[in-house]
């Protein structure tokens, strides 16, 4: 069977290279010739406004379907037509990502003439015909040139990856033939690397994690008897999606962060990474305690890892680039790794206070065996509930100057432009107060649709509280794996129960509404409903991966398993080398989804290949 595994690993490496070659075919600027004669950008269409009204000058306003309670924005004004034979025409670029509402107002009479709801296609050429009828004013959209299908590159990429998957499946089938398997075994005979440990945020091993004895930041080649591949696979899946969306996600809106309330693909991965970090903490600390490490020794490791994560985030991975090294004037203090470091510190220290080494082959004696993963840790739950009460009180009771108490909106043109400088309410106020405006994120996603005016950091201070809650729920998942070891049905049942419980809480908080619930799902604020919703998804996803990878063993976890084993290296590396070849190159057409998607998929695939190569060389970077 060693030969079979080697074939799968080698085929995965070759498959990644094949992706890079085949996807280059998607980069052809096939849509350039389809564009109208206008300087359009990606996700835009050309709209020519025809004013055929005899004596009226009109102004057209627009409103995005994704902008909740927003004011209309002026699109263009069209003067009175010069002659009766021809209309006045004003060309303008319009958004094609979401449906929009157009409102036509008469400047001459000072009243609304008509409204029209339409979803324009990318690089399409349209005309808005404003005509006078005997009884009313007519506003119609006419298609002059059909838009391009901007989603075709995704379909082609899907076909390519499915082809690679089919190729690997065929190879695996062939390897199961005994003569082929024996031949591969003799030729390859690789060393076993599944026993290696990588514990950048706490090891997911149930039986060993003492590789943490190595100095932080070294290349680890320590070993451990057993490892849950499902946790590394889950972490790798979240990481690879994170890398893809950070590289641009093909410039598709659903691979970017939601402007305010709601979820996109990009909003899923960070909390999943936090969740699996929490799961790893429980298993790691128990393993180290079982091996005889003192809690003081482990506390030192936790403090050192947290500090390193924070410093790497501030110094190495920092989006507020500025002239000269480490210019304090514009240095962003919060960030992804900074939040991971703070979250890891709180959850790991809290776990150290109550953690006990769970015997390898038996469970701890408890009065209620079915609740042995919860009842002994009631002080932890009490602390988390207190922490969440602090978040609720600060969010809904803190007096924010110039803003309504308990405001959760985006500011800008939202809420009918009543609170343009109140983006994020208490969360933004605390960041500005503690960190200063120049030390937080300057280009939040709320700028895109709500046109916000102030800086806002999605990894700010207040949101870190709910990040800790997310990691603690992941810690609970780790305790389930720890206390019900090898009881597969019990583990999966508990994952299912926790998923349902978190889902019910989300339903209550959001009222099944994107914008009108008590506490909407919001990644920028890391609202509690965002945490419960994403933890519900995480429990379901972990259940599926655990079943396929560790129970039935029908999936090795590849290719996500490999980056999951070197997650810090991949994350830091993809940020540092983002703008260097071969991860990025000069495009022929920067306004093409196809070229962006090709570049981003190839860059992401390269990191999978790099992590696979490091895995084969038994190189793992831990801090």
Give the strand order, joined by hyphens, for the main sheet.
4-1-7-8
Strand content: 5-15%
| SSE arrangement, N to C | HEEEEEEEEHHEHHHHHHHHHHHHHE
Largest sheet: 4 strands, mixed
Poorly predicted runs of 5 or more residues:
1-33, 190-225
* Rg over C-alpha atoms, rounded to the nearest angstrom: 27 Å
Which labels suit this protein?
10% strand, 45% helix, four-stranded mixed β-sheet, globular, alpha+beta, Immunoglobulin-like
Describe the protein.
This protein is an alpha+beta fold and 623 residues long. It folds into 2 domains: 35-145, Sandwich (Immunoglobulin-like); 210-576, no CATH class. It is 45% helix and 10% strand. It is built from 16 helices and 10 strands. The strands form 3 sheets. A 4-stranded mixed sheet has the order 4-1-7-8, with no helix packed on it. A 4-stranded antiparallel sheet has the order 3-2-5-6, with no helix packed on it. It has a two-stranded antiparallel ribbon with strand order 9-10. Helix 1 runs antiparallel to helix 16. The longest helix has 24 residues, at 152-175. The two termini are 33 Å apart. Mean pLDDT is 84; it is low at 1-33 and 190-225.
């Amino acid at each position: 069977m060693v030969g079979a595994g080697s074939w799968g690993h080698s085929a995965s490496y070759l498959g990644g290279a094949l992706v890079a070659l085949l996807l280059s075919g998607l980069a052809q600027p096939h849509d350039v010739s389809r564009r109208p004669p206008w300087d359009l950008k990606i996700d835009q269409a050309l709209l020519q406004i025809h004013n055929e009204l005899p004596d009226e000058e009109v102004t057209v306003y627009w409103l995005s379907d994704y902008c909740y309670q927003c004011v209309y924005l002026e699109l263009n004004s069209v003067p009175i037509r010069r002659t009766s034979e021809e209309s006045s025409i004003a060309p303008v670029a319009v958004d094609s990502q979401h449906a929009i509402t157009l409102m036509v107002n008469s400047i001459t009479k000072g009243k609304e003439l008509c409204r029209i709801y339409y979803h324009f296609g990318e690089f399409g050429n349209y005309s808005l015909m404003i005509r006078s009828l005997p009884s009313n004013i007519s506003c119609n959209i006419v298609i002059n040139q059909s838009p391009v299908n901007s989603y075709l590159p995704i379909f082609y990429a899907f076909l390519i990856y499915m082809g690679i998957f089919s190729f690997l499946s065929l190879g695996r089938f062939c390897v199961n033939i005994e003569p082929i398997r024996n031949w591969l075994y003799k030729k390859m005979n690789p060393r076993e690397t599944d026993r290696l440990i990588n514990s950048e945020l706490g090891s997911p091993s149930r039986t060993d994690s003492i590789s943490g004895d190595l100095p932080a930041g070294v290349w680890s080649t320590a070993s451990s008897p057993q490892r849950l591949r499902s946790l590394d696979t889950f972490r790798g899946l979240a990481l690879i999606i994170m890398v893809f969306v950070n590289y641009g996600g093909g410039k598709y809106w659903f691979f970017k962060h939601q402007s305010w309330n709601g979820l996109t693909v990009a909003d899923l991965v960070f909390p999943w990474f936090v969740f699996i970090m929490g799961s790893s903490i429980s298993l790691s600390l128990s393993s180290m305690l079982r091996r005889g490490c003192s809690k003081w020794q482990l506390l030192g490791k936790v403090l050192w890892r947290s500090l390193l994560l924070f410093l790497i985030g501030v110094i190495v991975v920092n989006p507020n680039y500025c002239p000269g090294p480490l210019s304090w004037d514009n240095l962003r203090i919060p960030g992804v790794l900074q939040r991971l470091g703070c979250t890891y510190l709180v959850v790991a220290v809290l776990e150290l206070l109550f953690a006990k080494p769970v015997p390898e082959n038996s469970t701890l004696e408890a009065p209620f065996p079915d609740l042995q993963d919860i009842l002994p840790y009631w002080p932890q739950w009490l602390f988390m509930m207190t922490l969440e009460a602090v978040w609720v009180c600060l969010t809904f009771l803190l007096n924010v100057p110039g803003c309504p108490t308990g405001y959760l909106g985006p500011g800008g043109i939202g809420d009918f432009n009543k609170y343009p400088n109140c983006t994020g309410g208490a969360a933004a106020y605390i960041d500005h107060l503690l960190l200063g405006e120049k030390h937080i994120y300057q280009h939040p996603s709320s700028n895109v649709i709500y046109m916000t005016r102030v800086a806002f950091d999605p990894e700010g201070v207040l949101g870190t509280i709910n990040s800790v809650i997310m990691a603690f729920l992941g810690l609970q998942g780790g305790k389930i794996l720890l206390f019900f070891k090898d009881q597969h049905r019990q583990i999966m049942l508990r994952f299912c129960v926790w998923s349902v419980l978190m889902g019910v809480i989300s339903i209550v908080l959001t009222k099944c509404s994107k914008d009108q619930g008590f506490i909407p799902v919001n990644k920028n604020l890391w609202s509690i409903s965002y945490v419960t919703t994403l933890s519900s998804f995480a429990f379901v996803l972990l259940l599926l991966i655990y079943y396929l990878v560790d129970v039935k063993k029908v999936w090795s976890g590849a290719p996500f398993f490999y980056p999951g084993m070197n997650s810090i290296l991949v994350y830091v590396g993809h940020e540092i080398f983002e703008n260097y070849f071969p991860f990025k190159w000069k495009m022929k057409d920067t306004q093409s989804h196809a070229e962006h998607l090709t570049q981003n998929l190839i860059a992401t695939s390269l990191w999978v290949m790099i992590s696979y190569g490091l895995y084969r060389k038994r190189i793992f970077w831990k801090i």
